[in-house]
Amino acid sequence: MINVLIIGATGSVGSTVRERLLQNSQIQLTSMARHANRLKPAENEHLVTGDIFDSALLAQTVRGQDFVFVAFSGAMKKAAKAVINAMEQTSTKRLAFIASMGIYNEVPGHNLDEPIPSILRPYREAADLIEASNLDYTVIRPGWFTQGPVNYQITHKGETFGGHDVSLESIADLVNKLVQEPTLYSRESIGINTPI
User: Fold this and answer.
1) What is the pLDDT of residues 121-134, one digit of tens each?
2) Which of 46, 62, 70, 186 lies at a 20 to 30 A Cα distance from 84?
3) What's the whole-model pTM score?
C-alpha cells in the first residue's frame, strides 16, 4: 500500500486528484480539508477535518505518509512553511505542491527582467521555500484550470511555458504518475499545460 495525503481535498484541484487516486486500490488515501466532513469517505480513505495551520494536527496527519500532495489556496508562503515543518518533524520526504504558472516570468509575452506580478509573488515565495528545503519535492506550476480530457505537456524550470490552460484531469493524471513513480520529477519545478 502507498500512503498518500491530500491537503486541500475539497478544492477544484484536490477533489479531482482525490477522485483519481481513489480508483487505485493500492493507495491508502488521507484527505484533509477544513470541510472534509462534507465528503463521503471511500473504503480506502481516511478523512481529516482541520486547518493546515494547526501544527499538531498537521504533523499527526503527515506522519507515516509516503506522498504528500498540497493543493492549497490562501496564505501560500505560510502554508509552505507549515508543510515543510510538519514533514521535517516527521521525517516525511515526498511532496508535490501546486503553485502557479508565471512565477518565473516563463509565460510567453512576459519580460524575464520585469518583476513578477504581485498576485503571483506568494506562489513564488512558497516555491522558493520548498526548493530550499531538504524535501523530495515536485513544485507543479499549472496553467488556468479547465474541464476536459487528459492532454498535457511538461515544461521545466528555465523553459518557456507552453500554453495558458490545463485540464484538472491532466493535473490528476500527473499527480497519479508522481505517486506511482517516486523519482519522477524529483526536486524539480515543472509547468503543466495543454499543448497549443
Assistant:
1) 999 999 999 999 99
2) 46
3) 0.95
